[in-house]
Amino acid sequence: MITLRKTDFKDKVTENFTVKEWFSKSADAPDSHLLDYDLCEAVQVIRDMYNTPIRINSTLRTLKGNQDAGGSPQSNHLTGHAVDFSFISESNEDIIAFMANQWTLKGMCYQELRGMRASVIFYPTFIHIDFQEGRGFKPQSIFTDEFGTYGFGNSVKKKYFFGRTT
């Protein structure tokens, strides 16, 4: 965990990201908060592999911020263990679909993030990554949705669901 402070907005967290980008977007966010640094490393890996700028959409959420976002009451955003992001590109959705497809092929990005024990969910317009503290890792589960048939599974979801922890 790292501590992010409003007073440090210009400081770098990783090569391509500042504290301001990672800071909570909740309207009632405190002046400082903790965030799982593995999230920062995972998103930097993706930024490097796809050589495309990334927008951090959501990290730590307050209770009110989570309610406003329509988040789950058990969301890992509440503890600073989750990030939602998108690519800053007109091709955002195409890049996400390509990345999801590459994930099913167990390419380099898959290998890197699975090695970090990341849980990754591909939505049509953004990607969610989380690290669930103190929980085991189960085999990947892949579901399909209206955007294509990626992988296998026994349930249809409105998201691509990869490598969740239990």
Short description:
The protein has 166 residues and is α+β, with helices and mostly antiparallel strands.
What would your notes on this structure say?
With 166 residues, the chain is an alpha+beta fold. The chain has a single domain (2-139), classed as Muramoyl-pentapeptide Carboxypeptidase, domain 2. It contains five helices and nine strands. The strands form three sheets. The chain has a five-stranded antiparallel β-sheet with strand order 5-6-8-7-9, covered by helices on one side. Helix 2 packs antiparallel against helix 5. The longest helix has 14 residues, at 37-50. The radius of gyration is 15 Å and the shape is globular.
Question: In percent, how much strand structure appears in the residues?
Answer: 15-25%
Helix content: 25-40%
- What is the tally of helical segments? 5
**Structural Rg:** 15 Å
Name the strands of the widest sheet in spatial order: 5-6-8-7-9
Largest sheet: 5 strands, antiparallel
SSE string, helix = H, strand = E?
EEEHEHEHEHHEEE
Query: What is the name of the CATH topology?
Result: Muramoyl-pentapeptide Carboxypeptidase, domain 2
Q: What ranges have pLDDT less than 50 throughout 5 or more consecutive residues? A: 135-161
The total of beta strands comes to 9
CATH architecture type: 2-Layer Sandwich
- Average per-residue pLDDT, rounded, comes to 83
Q: Give the overall shape.
A: globular
* Sheet/helix structural class: alpha+beta
Highest CATH level, the class = Alpha Beta
**Domains, number:** 1
